[in-house]
Write a structure and sequence with these properties.
It comes from Sphaeroforma arctica JP610. Helices cover 47% and strands 4% of the residues. By secondary structure, the chain is mainly alpha-helical. The protein has a single domain, classed as Phosphatidylinositol 3-kinase, Chain A. The chain has a two-stranded antiparallel sheet. The chain is globular and about 45 Å long.
Length: 208
């Protein structure tokens, strides 16, 4: 699933998980937001469906093959590259960028940044922190997600997810059957999109 698809789904869902829907897995006292707090063990054994580039460490690599970073906010591990990229996108000065995901970044800049981060011994965090145009970072995130050997949400399940957006319990049930690492990544991206939507009056990226 592309980032555009995830963004549309997230914004349509009001950019945050509803707080009052209960799900039987967590018991009557727990809420839908428990999904964000759930401790999840990374699925390290999901095979890639397509062979990634022999030289690429990030773009085109299966999620399970990438180095992981534990993210305290979601109590789960995500690919280290995704974490660093998301951290830069979430900088305060970038969250207020108008159309941060809607408007494209410079293609040549995105391609150059992609080449630099894939170089041996590249300082990924340093390279990402030097980017001054937030749309270059969001453009690189779109490239990263688009080139995953396995989509975050399988195409066969995508329609079900879209239909479930107005039914909180069904949406959560679908999320719970996703591979753990895919769910971790989805949750992390949702946090980024929620932070952006919270500043909709400035960045013009609202839930509609």
């Amino acid at each position: 699933m592309s980032l555009n698809g995830i963004a549309s789904a997230t914004f349509a869902a009001r950019a945050a998980f509803p707080a009052k829907t209960c799900y039987q897995l967590y018991g009557p006292s727990e809420s839908f937001s428990a999904l964000l707090r759930k401790e999840i063990t990374p699925d390290l054994y999901t095979p890639a469906t397509t062979a990634p580039s022999k030289t690429a460490k990030y773009i085109g690599q299966n999620l399970a093959a990438q180095a992981l970073t534990y993210v305290k906010q979601i109590k789960a591990a995500v690919p280290e590259f995704l974490y660093e990229l998301g951290s830069q996108i979430s900088r305060k000065e970038f969250l207020t960028t108008k159309g941060i995901f809607r408007l494209p970044g410079g293609l040549k800049q995105i391609q150059l940044l992609e080449k630099k981060i894939e170089l041996p011994n590249a300082d990924v965090k340093g390279l990402l922190s030097e980017v001054e145009d937030s749309r270059v970072l969001t453009g690189l995130l779109k490239v990263y997600i688009k080139n995953l050997p396995q989509p975050i949400i399988n195409s066969s399940e995508l329609n079900e997810f879209e239909r479930a957006l107005d039914n909180d319990e069904t949406f959560m049930q679908l999320a719970m059957i996703m591979p753990d690492m895919h769910l971790n990544v989805l949750r992390y991206i949702l946090r980024i999109l929620r932070a952006i939507a919270a500043r909709k009056k400035v960045n013009e990226m609202n839930a509609e």
